[in-house]
Design a protein that fits this description.
The chain has 341 residues and is an alpha+beta fold. A hairpin with a 2-residue loop joins β10 and β11. The protein is elongated.
């Protein structure tokens, strides 16, 4: 009787050991399976990200080709009727899609052109002051931007700006560039500029290498920018309406056509006429590739010189984008913070 009970006890222990081993093996198999699934998912994600990046690159290449084709076609004046400005739907390529758009930077006002050869140009500042008024932005932000890009340490007087001493109180402290802005995103470092204000500005201003002249393409500029060119255009909205109606029929190519728009030449005045251009030198190409819900975006700025283009900047992004062919820009989120690689 005792031996039988001992055998039954040993059998029970053996059964428990077997069950424990089976349980441990099951856990190991489950962990291995989950690990393999994670690794497989990461591998597919990396592959999709690479493919999406090359899709975006292809969109940039198509945009560059359109800018060059427009230069070869010629015809005078860069306008919203040109081949590069047309809206293109997302294009299916293989298992993914690519969407892109091209915009001329001359439709915007270049913030860096407020300073010429190290000297602040009052008549150009007046253009931006009118633009800020139209957009409902505090003029103190404009003077802070001026102090950010000028070379001296004297705050702009009216309204008072912000030089280095104002930024030492920031946590962490911010060092004023005292030179041309490198990206629009850099404006977030300027005192008073919030993401909301930056989003408001980005449809009307740009950051390009200083050209020592403030010019805007009247064939593509927004109405707010055209209003800002002179007190006369700001005071007579009908002039801007007539200009926009005229350019929708055919692009303007010279000052003679400016004079043909009723009241426009008088509204611009001498200074305003100096801010007018009809062609574009810089173009922004924005592209996004998508495959299996993985997106990669690229923002490129190119300079067109005759029938050649030179890359000015190239900003890749892994940020989720929603690209359409129409303005205003939805690429604010793609720009990295200053100093990011």
């Amino acid at each position: 009787m005792t031996r039988r009970r001992r055998n039954e006890g040993e059998s029970g222990i053996a059964l428990l050991v077997v069950l424990l081993v089976i349980t441990l093996l099951t856990i190991v198999v489950i962990e291995f399976t989950e690990s393999a699934q994670v690794e497989t998912h990461l591998a597919f994600s990396a592959r999709n990200a690479l493919q999406a990046n090359y899709l975006a690159r292809s969109g940039v290449n198509v945009g560059e080709a359109l800018v060059l084709v427009d230069a070869q076609i010629g015809g005078g004046g860069d306008s919203l009727q040109d081949v590069w400005a047309r809206p293109f739907p997302p294009l299916p390529i293989g298992d993914g899609t690519v969407a892109f758009r091209v915009r001329d930077e001359a439709r915007f006002l270049n913030l860096n052109d407020m300073i010429s050869a190290g000297t602040l140009r009052a008549e150009r500042v007046d253009v931006f002051r009118r633009l800020f008024t139209i957009l409902g932005i505090d003029p103190r932000i404009l003077t802070a931007i001026i102090d950010w890009i000028d070379r001296d340490e004297t705050p702009f007087p009216t309204p008072i700006g912000a030089e280095q001493s104002s930024y030492f109180a920031f946590q962490p402290p911010v060092y004023v560039r005292n030179g041309p802005l490198l990206t629009l995103r850099e404006l977030l470092l300027v005192r008073g500029v919030t993401p909301t204000i930056l989003a408001r500005l980005e449809g009307f201003v740009t950051v390009l290498p200083p050209a020592n002249e403030l010019k805007v393409n009247v064939n593509s500029a927004a109405a707010e920018v055209l209003y800002a060119l002179s007190p006369g255009t700001l005071g007579d909205p009908g002039v801007v309406d007539r200009l926009i109606t005229t350019r929708e029929t055919a692009p303007l190519t010279g000052m003679g056509e400016i004079k043909a728009v009723t009241g426009l030449d008088e509204a611009l005045g001498e200074h305003g006429r100096g801010f007018v251009d009809f062609d574009s030198t810089y173009f922004r190409i924005e592209a996004v590739g998508e495959i299996d819900e993985v997106r990669r975006g690229i923002v490129e700025v190119v300079k067109r010189d005759g029938k050649r283009i030179t890359r000015v900047s190239w900003t890749p992004s892994s940020t989720t984008l929603a690209l359409t062919s129409q303005p205003p820009s939805d690429f604010l989120a793609t720009l990295p913070l200053l100093g990011d690689s």
